[in-house]
Amino acid sequence: MSTAARVVPTFPDSIFRAYDIRGVVPKTLTAETAYWIGRAIGSQSLAQDEPNVSVGRDGRLSGPELVEQLIQGLADSGCHVSDVGLVPTPALYYAANVLAGKSGVMLTGSHNPSDYNGFKIVIAGDTLANEQIQALHDRLKNNDLTSGKGTVTKVDILQRYSDEITRDVKLARRLKVVVDCGNGAAGVIAPQLLEALNCEVIPLFCEVDGNFPNHHPDPGKPENLVDLIAKVKETGADVGLAFDGDGDRVGVVTETGEIVFPDRLLMLFARDVVARNANAEIIFDVKCTRRLTPLIKEYGGRPLMWKTGHSLIKKKMKETGALLAGEMSGHVFFKERWFGFDDGIYSAARLLEILSKEKSTAEELFQTFPNDISTPEINIHVTEESKFSIIDALHDAQWGEGANLTTIDGVRVDYAKGWGLVRASNTTPVLVLRFEADTEAELQRIKDVFHAQLKRVAPDLQLPF
To answer: Alpha-D-phosphohexomutase C-terminal domain: which residues (predicted)?
Structure first.
């Protein structure tokens, strides 16, 4: 269709989110939407003197139709597109680091249900968030769009990405690994890459299928690790790995089937990175354990707590020069030896490298790190409007003796023997809570304080604790 015949439609505000653009196909996100988002991204990239844009997609069923229109929109804005095809998100980020241009768009619904899709966007080396995403919406509203005749070139990035990892990561001994790709995009590369690293690989749900017929591709939820745990125990594997729908997050289970939570994984990675880089800055988000700060200091590193959100963490890494970062959601970012983007596949390789050098098992290794009693993430449904006003009201709450407040992202209250957090989710209308303490009694005490303060500022809240 010629661009002259196309009129910019209006778009639902709901698809322009904190870290990406995301919607339900075909309700809030259509091929037409994808075309115009391509035009807006292309226009913005050109405004930042970056005419080259890499494009990839995950394995969702709506992907082929949407990516075709996204690429058309980018080309019609005057950009030159490198189409890297069906890849995990880290391979697209890699393309945006090593190909001609430093811009990239990943068409992915990540770990959302199968009818979702969306766009993770990098422009001139910067992962977009918040007002930068709104600026794309403003371009569309104001018809502030360039026109041109761009080109489209198909590029095989997977082999290059795989080769770069196998050049960097070396295993000291062969490991037996179960790999659960959850029928997501990691399936096109993860099993083959781990074999290239000299692992014995037992694949689980590595066929890409956008229906996600086996379990949801979200390793952050324990119910999605049940199959992996069973297979690890059955096969006597050294470790189990699970990737989310687009491969930028990794979940880990030990040989006994114990889940290694991402903040504990970061303890191991921090020890490894700081051993080679004294005084290195290590970033973690507000949802992570209080045990990270003293441990990183003990290793000789500099801990920095920051806001949750992959885009926000990457910005902070650039600003501070941090060599490693991690989020409780499972995003791990290596700048040491890698590019600083969140990469579940590379993180898995680095874990295997460390395990291969250890005489102990994965279970024994992780048992050497401090461990508190903690709750899973608690989500409380509120309205989009009230979630921020509740948090604002809590800034002035009475948190009791010895309370140390962190308010960079919600309200985190650290005490001598534990902590609690309440923050507004940036992606859904919920308040996110988490608690941790060294005893059950202290955990309950902190929960009670949070319960009282939440009820004080929002008496109608239904609290499950």
So the answer is: 377-449
